[in-house]
Amino acid sequence: MTLISNHQLHKAATSKISNGFKGKSIVAFVDLLGFSKDIMSKWDNKTDDPLYRLMRIKSLLELAIKNANPHKFCDHNGKIILKITYPKLITFSDSFIFLKELEDQDPSYILGSVLATIGSIIELWRISVDEKFSIRGGVDYGEIFYTVDDLVGPTLINSYNLEVKTADVSR
After folding, report:
1. What percent of the chain has pLDDT over 70?
2. Which residue, 125, 112, 21, is CA-closest to 70?
3. For the chain, percent helix, then strand, then coil, each to nearest 5?
4. CA angle at residue 137 from 119 to 129, to 5 degrees?
5. CA–CA separation, 18 vs 39, rounded Å?
6. What is the rounded distance in angstroms from the CA atom of residue 143 to the CA atom of residue 125?
7. Parallel, antiparallel, or unpaired: how do β-strands 80-84 and 88-92 relate?
8. Does residue 171 have a pLDDT over 60?
9. Angle CA 17–64–116, to nearest 5
10. Residue 168 confidence (pLDDT)
């Protein structure tokens, strides 16, 4: 095995951090209820395949986000006052993480970002019910770091803990 110097390691770690996003975000951690049980009991079931149902959910969300227009918020005269893009979607197994960076600290932008995140969770819930699952999750606001490969931060931990420890049933 080749020896790696502290300088090389420092340079690589610093590069990873500088190529990621570190800042304020809204993070929602949402899980499919009953998926683990279905995977364990129906793995080879050709008529009620939980893997296929999960991939349908993920594919629909990915296509919806890819083809979506930004959320538009209007004043009382119908004039567009704010456009908010959909949150990023990160998945692993039956967990869905919606991540909305808060580039702007304006209260209207933050409110629009919260509504965009909630809208995405509602869409996940609708799709999940169609595929015979329900959802449970937690949402938090605060610091996060992410890249294509990494997701770390107190806000992720808080939203995960809300899903696992606080939420008792599907909401």
Report:
1. 96
2. 112
3. 45, 30, 25
4. 65
5. 38
6. 26
7. unpaired
8. no
9. 65
10. 63
CA angle, corner 143, sides to 140 and 144, nearest 5?
95
Q: State which amino acid sits at residue 121.
A: I
Give dist(CA 93, CA 36) in Å, integer. Answer: 9
pLDDT band at 169 (very low <50, low <70, confident <90, very high): low
pLDDT at 103: 76
Q: For residue 164, what is the DSSP state? A: I
Residues 114 and 55: their CA atoms lie apart, in Å, by 26
Tokens 């420092």 correspond to: 10
At position 132, the amino acid (one-letter code) is K
**pLDDT exceeds cutoff 90 at 84:** no
For the record, the structure tokens of 156 come out as 């992720």
For residue 59, name the pLDDT band (cuts at 50, 70, 90). very high
What are the residues whose beta carbons fall under 8 Å from the beta carbon of 150, sequence distance 6 or more? Answer: 16, 20
CA torsion sign for 43, 45, 51, 57 is negative
